[in-house]
Write a structure and sequence with these properties.
By secondary structure, the chain is mainly beta. It has one helix and 36 strands. The protein has two domains: 119 residues, Immunoglobulins (Immunoglobulin-like); 281 residues, YVTN repeat-like/Quinoprotein amine dehydrogenase (Methylamine Dehydrogenase, Chain H).
Amino acid sequence: MPLVVTCIFAILIIIGCGEDDVSNTSTEPNITTDDSFQNTYNYNDTSHTLDITIGITNNGDAGSGNFEVGFYLSTDTDIFTTDKLIGTVSHPGIAIGSNATLALSVDLDDIPNLSDGTYYIGMYYDHLDQVTESDETDNTNNFSSTISYSATVEPQPGWTTQTSGTTSQLKSVYFINSTTGWAIGSSGVILNTVDGGATWDTQISGTTGSLNSIQFTDDATGWVTGFSSLGTFLNTTDAGETWNLSSIATKPLYAIHFINDSTGWIVGEEGIILKTTDRGITWESQSTDINTFLKSVYFANDSTGWAVGDAGTILTTSNGGALWNDQTSGIARELKSVYFRNSELGWAVGNEGIILKTSNGGSTWEPQTSGTSNSLFSVHFVDDITGWISGNGATILNTLDGGATWTSQLTTTSANLLSVYLVSGTTGWAVGSIGTIINTTNAGNLE
């Protein structure tokens, strides 16, 4: 009998040992790289888009629950959660011995605070530690090659705002070189700069009326017209240190143009055209037989000139204004500005985005496509093919082919722009409502 008891005891011991062995066997998942899958990435170093495809597997002894894979950029081949996270992909879980393919597409420019540099692309499986795994040391992988990233800089407008120091509407701007210029507007405002617009200083006009047009023929001699019933006229011979105010008509005057320091013309309300040959000391009225509001005047030489205004009016003279004749514009919309390069080539602009061009002195005017319905107030060319137009809604248009195509340029303002003037193919200014002055030094191109 004692022998039997001993045997039973031994059997119990063996069974107990077997139970201990089973309790120590792992039944946990293990998420790691699928070595049978070819991981790939595609990186566009211009757009900075990155597409990644990877394979993972569960080679553990149990299925996994939900987990997330983190994709990182690292300056070395060791991938940690402290590296730069660029995206995640969630997975509902992988069964024992199963594989999965994960893909991520990301624009690196959308990653906050990503520094320029060279990076390895790395993956961290279950980077949030959502799954208890049998081996937590094989959860990372990386591509052996690197990518280079340099942040995309958003293009900046080529026209930037200058501080005018006024909220008055500015109606005309004129520069004699790249540093010295003037801007005028409502409430008798006259501004002057001698540093390209970095600073603008106020000059005393002697009037609170609206000033509409300004021109200088040298660094000291200039003229201004004003929109009042008194026919406001100002002139200076000392660069605006003093402005001499006078009344030369009984109608509002709108625009002025001098071809030299003695001979010039002024146009305005009810078809008025005035001419001076003595620097503005005396003015002679010229007959037009029209009652139309004239908004702009330009002479190519001392005999050949044009004036434009309401209802598509275009007038021309070939004898200095002794006789003015109508030209056919083909439109009934108001024309606000006219500019000629010579006695044959010129442009006129106006309401509802109208642009007209002539190559024969105005015998015929052909419309050009502006691409806008905004009113256009001012046109200026620096050569026969390169020009700019300004208008409502911060409109700046530029052409490099004589107006065959007009391209809109970005600005840093939303103001209406009533006048534009360039001293070269790169440097110019435009002015407008609420004291707006904008400047370009790169032809208005995006920077």
